[in-house]
């Protein structure tokens, strides 16, 4: 099992974000590997590069699966995409006055 797959399983079973040190400890335990700085650093780097994981701040990591999905292209308004919607266009026309 790859280290990132083990870390993913740990978080999935935990069901909530974990401190990175606890995540690394549990991942290494599952893999049957002793904690050595180089090994832990490599796993941490792999977690950073794996799109399944999401940094939550304060050394906490979770899974992207836990985030609500953003509306699709057809479901999003112009405002959601950083543009403006029809109401904004009407406001601009009124201001031209």
Automatic annotation (TrEMBL):
MF terms in GO: nucleotidyltransferase activity
Signal peptide range in chain numbering: none
UniProt KW Transferase keyword: yes
UniProt cross-references to Pfam families, sorted A to Z: HARE-HTH
Single GO cellular component term: DNA-directed RNA polymerase complex
Residue ranges of domain HTH HARE-type in the record: 1-66
UniProt GO BP: DNA-templated transcription; regulation of DNA-templated transcription
Gene3D superfamilies to which the protein is assigned, alphabetical: RNA polymerase, subunit delta, N-terminal domain (1.10.10.1250)
Chain positions covered by the region annotation Disordered: 62-97
Biased composition (Acidic residues): 85-97
Keywords: DNA-directed RNA polymerase, Nucleotidyltransferase, Transcription, Transferase
Family membership: Belongs to the RpoE family.
Protein name: RNAP delta factor
Organism: Sulfobacillus harzensis
Gene: rpoE
